[in-house]
Write a structure and sequence with these properties.
Helix content: 40-55%
Number of strands: 9
Mean pLDDT: 87
Shape: globular
Largest sheet: 6 strands, parallel
Strand order of the largest sheet: 5-4-9-8-6-7
Radius of gyration: 18 Å
Low-confidence stretches: 264-273
Strand content: 15-25%
Order of helices and strands: EEEHEHHEHHEHEHEHEHHHHH
C-alpha cells in the first residue's frame, strides 16, 4: 500500500497487527505533513500508534476501523519490535506526536493558523503561550479544553471553522480523540488534523520530558512510568507483555506474512492477473 500526497510524497506502509503504519523518515514525514497542511482543499488526519494504542485496537473493532481511515505514524519502541518481527527491520523514525508536532511547527515556515482542543483549561492556556513562543510566526487558538460536554461538539467545531484553522491539534487521549475526530471533524475545519495525546501537558510543563538519551533509545515510556507509577503502572506493567503476546500470536498465525505478500503483489502488479 502506498500513501501519496499530491505527486511528491510516496510512502510505503508496514503491516503492524493488521494496521498499515507509515515508514517515513523524519524529513519525509515533515514534507508530507507540510504539503497537506498548505493545500487549498482536502483534509488529512494523522494518528500515532504505540503499544498501548495497539492493545486498544486489538479489542476495539470500532477503534481499529477509525484508525484505518486515518494516516498512522509509528510511536515508540514497541512499533520497532513489531516491525523487526514482521518485516526484519525497525522503522526509520520514531514519529511520536510529542516530538513530531513541535518539530513540524518549526519546520513549516509559512504562517499557519493552529487550533487546539483538549486537556485542562489552565494547561491548554499555558501550552498555547509556550507554542506561541516556540513558533511565533504561527497563530494559535485555544478552542476548548478536553472536558466540554460532548453534546456541544458541533459548537466547538463551529469555532474551529470560524478561526479558519489550517492545522487542528486534538488532545483527549486514545481512543477518545481518534474516535471524536472521526465523528466530528470534517472538510472545512482544517487541512491537517493530528491526535496528540498528552502533548499539551508536556508543552505546558505539567509533565517532564525524559532526557535526550532516553528518548533516543525510545524508552520514554519507562521515564513516564517512574514519574507517574500510580497512573501508568497498569498500562506498562500489564500492557507491554500483552502487546508482546499480540505480536507473537500475530506472527505465529502467519497473518503478517500473508498480508505483506498480498500488499507486495498489489504494488507489483496493480491488479494484473
Amino acid at each position: 500500500m502506498n500513501l501519496m500526497s499530491g505527486n511528491t510524497i510516496s510512502a510505503s506502509q508496514r503491516d503492524i497487527l493488521g494496521m498499515p503504519v507509515c515508514d517515513l523518515r523524519w524529513e519525509d514525514a515533515f514534507a508530507f505533513a507540510e504539503e497537506v497542511a498548505t493545500m487549498p482543499f482536502g483534509q488529512t488526519v494523522i494518528a500515532f500508534l504505540n503499544a498501548n494504542n495497539a492493545n486498544l485496537m486489538m479489542r476495539d473493532p470500532q477503534y481499529r476501523a477509525v484508525l484505518e481511515r486515518q494516516v498512522v505514524f509509528p510511536d515508540g519502541h514497541g512499533m520497532d519490535i513489531a516491525s523487526r518481527l514482521f518485516h526484519g527491520r525497525q522503522f526509520p523514525a520514531n514519529l511520536n506526536g510529542t516530538d513530531f508536532v513541535p518539530a513540524l511547527l518549526t519546520y513549516i515556515s509559512r504562517p499557519m493558523r493552529v487550533a487546539m482542543i483538549g486537556t485542562r483549561e489552565d494547561t491548554l492556556q499555558r501550552a498555547t503561550e509556550n507554542f506561541r513562543r516556540h513558533a511565533p510566526w504561527h497563530t494559535f487558538f485555544p478552542i476548548a479544553d478536553g472536558f466540554f460536554d460532548r453534546a456541544q461538539s458541533d459548537e466547538v467545531m463551529k469555532r474551529v471553522r470560524e478561526v479558519n484553522a489550517d492545522i487542528l491539534l486534538v488532545a483527549m487521549g486514545s481512543p477518545q480523540q481518534e474516535k471524536w475526530i472521526d465523528r466530528h471533524v470534517g472538510p472545512g475545519h482544517a487541512r491537517l488534523v493530528l491526535s496528540v495525546g498528552a502533548l499539551f501537558d508536556f508543552v505546558a510543563g505539567d509533565m517532564p520530558r525524559a532526557p535526550e538519551g532516553v528518548r533516543r533509545l525510545r524508552l520514554e515510556w519507562l521515564h513516564r512510568l517512574v514519574h507517574e507509577p500510580k497512573r501508568l503502572w497498569r498500562r506498562y506493567i500489564f500492557g507491554n507483555p500483552l502487546f508482546l503476546w499480540h505480536i507473537l500470536r500475530y506472527r505465529m498465525s502467519g497473518m503478517a506474512d500473508g498480508r505483506t505478500a498480498v500488499r507486495e503483489r498489489k504494488q507489483a502488479g496493480a491488479g494484473a492477473p
